Amino acid sequence: MAINMSSSNFLFVLCLVCGAIIIPAGLCQSRGKTIFPRTFGLNTIRLLIEGNGYGYENYTVTTEDGYLLNLNRIVHPNRTGSHRGYPLLLVNGYFMQSEAWLVQQELDSNLGFVFADKGYDVWLGDQRGTERSKGHINKTIDESKLWDFTYHETGVYDFPAFIDFILNKTNHEDLIFSCMSLGCTFHSVLGSKRPSYNQKIRAAIYFVPIISNNRQLEELNSLVYLMLRTAPALTEILEKSGLIEWHPNLGNLKKELYHVCRVIGYNLYRLFVKIMFDTGFHVPHCNVVALSLGGASSRVAKHIIQVFDSAGFSEFDYGREENLKKYGTVLPPLYDLKKITTPIAFYYSDIDQYTSPR
Ligand SMILES: *[C@@H]1O[C@H](CO)[C@@H](O)[C@H](O)[C@H]1NC(C)=O
Ligand SMILES: *[C@@H]1O[C@H](CO)[C@@H](O)[C@H](O)[C@H]1NC(C)=O
Ligand SMILES: *[C@@H]1O[C@H](CO)[C@@H](O)[C@H](O)[C@H]1NC(C)=O
Ligand SMILES: *[C@@H]1O[C@H](CO)[C@@H](O)[C@H](O)[C@H]1NC(C)=O
Question: What Gene3D superfamilies would the database entry show (predicted)?
Fold first, then answer.
């Protein structure tokens, strides 16, 4: 096994090296397939981007509430100077990190690379709580205070930090924003809580957003329902024991997931995912899942469940007493979606149980 691993590593490095030189000529590997790193570390995103023939840059951005976030940038090989195209920010979904935009098997299915090829200056933001964005100016990682956030804080603090940094760096007045799943929820929070940012986003492209849902929780597939239903109780237990980071040893989890997926084989794994989610959608490959996982606070899960629950798309429900202190009302206030003036394009599918066209 050790020999296998190192020989595949060697092949990968070889491919990386020829990738940079020969890929354009189509000799090492056809441009049709994405080249995946075989390691799961903090620098996977760099390996993924550089391995497929693009340049990589990253920056640390500080939010108003002191979080240190990692912001990635794809550098197109033909645009390395100061004019890199119109800026476009991609933000991923729950428990994911920026790799999620770059892990499809076909190179042309990776929106990060597609936008870069189309002439955009592509930025990928790692929101707070993901593997590369766990720093804080005052707090250390194991302090539970660091994990005391929901998607509200991500929308209200992380996005402005990303956007202001990009606009300042590129000398542009505005940018295009695209998101998948919970990433779109962050944007809706931002647009409704800090409407001045609507001017800084020329347009938003939503893929499978989680904002409102016309299905009751009970109508969801029973296993998903069970997961969503047990999550708040689980969160409660974790929080009481001072552990609100969701799966702290994510690096190992990813390695195990990838290993299990490879051992049981893609078909068995696919069957499992289909039974689990009951939607018959295209099931992503082993490395997609393993590479995309980025981590999150368990509070975020609690807040997501509110969307499917009676509370609707509202601010975080801290419970009666805390709500009264924080919001002045027993129930948390709804996000005012009318305040969002940025034009939005929605992409969703009819069989999606988690996204509603409303
Ligand atoms: C991002 O930048 C920091 C500081 O320059 C560096 O230490 C880190 O390794 C970079 N991240 C990646 C994924 O390359
Ligand atoms: C960080 O700590 C300093 C000094 O204790 C304090 O003044 C500041 O408000 C803190 N900043 C944040 C964002 O917590
Ligand atoms: C870069 O520009 C050259 C010359 O215009 C072109 O042949 C090549 O395909 C471009 N590379 C990429 C990755 O688009
Ligand atoms: C904008 O960039 C300049 C130069 O890079 C820097 O001095 C300044 O602090 C930045 N402003 C903000 C708001 O980040």
Answer: alpha/beta hydrolase
Atom 2 of ligand 4, residue of closest alpha carbon? 168
Query: Tokens representing 77?
Result: 């090989």
Instruction: Report the pLDDT value the prediction gives residue 331, as an integer from 0 to 100.
Output: 85
Report the alpha-carbon distance of residue 227 to residue 232 in Å, rounded: 9
Picking from 224-233, 267-276, 347-356, which range would have the lowest pLDDT averaged per residue? 347-356
Q: How far apart are CA 165 and CA 1, in angstroms?
A: 45
Tokens 């001017």, residue?
A: 199
Q: CB under 8 Å to 344, separation ≥6 — which residues? A: 203, 204, 205, 206
Q: Is residue 168 within 6 Å of ligand 4 at its C-beta?
A: yes
* 41 neighbors 254 (Cβ within 8 angstroms): no
Q: Each residue of 127-162: pLDDT tens digit?
A: 888 888 888 888 665 666 777 788 888 889 999 999
Ligand 2 pocket, mutate which of 64, 65, 68, 137 (most atoms under 8 A from CB): 137
Q: Residue whose CA is closest, atom 10 of ligand 3?
A: 78
Q: 282: which 2 tokens? A: 């295209």
Ligand 3 pocket at CB < 6 A:
77-78
Beta bridge partners of 82: none
User: Tokens standing for 24?
Assistant: 């354009």
Query: Which ligand neighbours the alpha carbon of 75 most closely?
Result: 3
Query: Which ligand 2 atom sits nearest the alpha carbon of residue 137?
Result: 1
Domains and their CATH numbers in the chain = 7-314 (3.40.50.1820)
**pTM, full prediction:** 0.77
Please report the pLDDT score of residue 22 as a whole number: 33
**d(C-alpha 231, C-alpha 217), whole Å:** 13
Pocket of ligand 2 (CB under 6 A): 65-66, 137-138
Atom of ligand 4 nearest to the CA of 169: 2
**Lowest-confidence region among 166-170, 184-188, 259-263:** 259-263
- Alpha-carbon gap, residue 76 to 214, rounded angstroms: 41
Atom of ligand 1 nearest to the CA of 43: 13
More confident residue, 21 or 44: 44
Q: Which of 62, 165, 166, 168 to mutate to test ligand 4, by most ligand atoms within 8 A of the CB atom?
A: 168
